[in-house]
Amino acid sequence: MKLVVDKLLLASQLPRRTIALVLAGGRGSRLMQLTENRAKPAVYFGGKFRIIDFALSNCINSGIRRIGVITQYRPHSLIRHLQRGWSFLRGEQNEFVDLMPAGQQMEEGLWYRGTADSVSQNMGILRSYQPDYILVLAGDHIYKMDYSQLLLDHAEKKSACTVACVEVPREDASGFGVVAVDENRKITGFLEKPENPPSMPGNPNMTLASMGVYVFNADYLYELLAEDAEDATSAHDFGKDIIPKVVGLGEAMAHYFSMSCVPPSSLVRPYWRDVGTVDAFWSSNLDLTSNMPELNLYDEDWPIWTYQEQEPPAKFVPDPHGMDGVISNTMVSGGCIICGSKISNTVLFSKVRVNPFCNVDQSVVLPDVEIGQGSRIKKAIIDRGCRIPEGTVIGEDHELDAQRFYRTPNGVVLVTDEMLAKHYNFEHVPRVE
């Protein structure tokens, strides 16, 4: 009994001795035009959230309230979102979300050369907080994880570095950074997108993919980064340089996502998604419209925090002929007005206006979009602020879609305001994200 109590006490104390660093400076170029004006972590997701909200919410729900967000590429919308939605932490209680933009700590004003360099350039700030542990997080994945359990595993294993890993089928693992482990979870190899991924001990059909989530003893990380900064051959990146070096020294342990996922893996299959491509972004959003989605956004015990404008409830009204629309398997956010249209298997973000006689299916419609009367839209992503002209048809003629918009090989059509302006020959006014 005492052992259980001591373990619970340690798990509650470790988050207070930890600084979390969210790496949020990447562009995410595989998301194409979705990241032309915003960083990947600032991309909208799930009807009302931004991608970064998941890592930040995991921190808050895990008891970690000292957080640094490292920014670089087109940070305006991300910074504004953090200022508006994440300013509730109490500075007088040593709680904060600190912004760490590129160049602020170097006399040369250098951009961050890699993920490790982005942490290295902020070393003075980190040391001033005097953490015992540093939790490094990718800011562009969708998952729910109790970081206190990760920290507990790190401390109990007396590890210098712990890499969080998600179990994936071997046939799907070649697109990830993959780790090989022994029976004690010690990492024996780190392979980037291998053709023949190593299997997990005792489970030949599964392998371990790095989640981009690392725990370091603070002093140990400082030494690694100081050495890396002096290495002219280094890419100054965690995945390419720091983690392989730690693995080579035999000082890295693996932590299985199933040990700390929320809800516990005994209840549901662990959910983790890299929404780094247009197809993955589309499918992950549409997953939420199923009857029992794997990602539960309705869990009051592990809420996803965010900033959202104060909008009126969504409204559904009949068309001019008095006929009601049909809505099925659809998430509808505040401020939306749906007028006598058919909407199915779709995510509507805030302030979307759907005019009469439309048919929208299998689509992700970002905020402040208006869909003109009589439009038919299928398997599309409509970017924020688009005005779809009356009678527009998207998702039926593949060749025409490819001429007007961006179409993936799997048939998902991405529509932006700039594309519409070019095709319909009206003035494009860039939006401030």
UniProtKB/TrEMBL annotation:
Show where the Nucleotidyl transferase domain sits.
20-290
Q: Which domain of life is it from?
A: Bacteria
Quote the Pfam families the UniProt record gives.
Hexapep_GlmU (PF24894), NTP_transferase (PF00483)
The positions annotated as site (Could play a key role in the communication between the regulatory and the substrate sites) read Q72, W111
Per UniProt, alpha-D-glucose 1-phosphate binds at Y112, G177, E192, K193, S210
Name the enzyme group at the top EC level. Answer: transferase
Does this entry carry the keyword ATP-binding? yes
Keyword annotations of the record = ATP-binding, Carbohydrate metabolism, Glycogen biosynthesis, Glycogen metabolism, Nucleotide-binding, Nucleotidyltransferase, Transferase
- The protein's annotated pathway: Glycan biosynthesis; glycogen biosynthesis
Please name the GO terms that the record assigns under molecular function. Answer: ATP binding; glucose-1-phosphate adenylyltransferase activity
Q: Which family does it belong to?
A: Belongs to the bacterial/plant glucose-1-phosphate adenylyltransferase family.
Quote the protein name from its UniProt record. Glucose-1-phosphate adenylyltransferase
Source organism per UniProt: Oxalobacter vibrioformis
Organism classification = Bacteria, Pseudomonadati, Pseudomonadota, Betaproteobacteria, Burkholderiales
Q: Which gene encodes it?
A: glgC
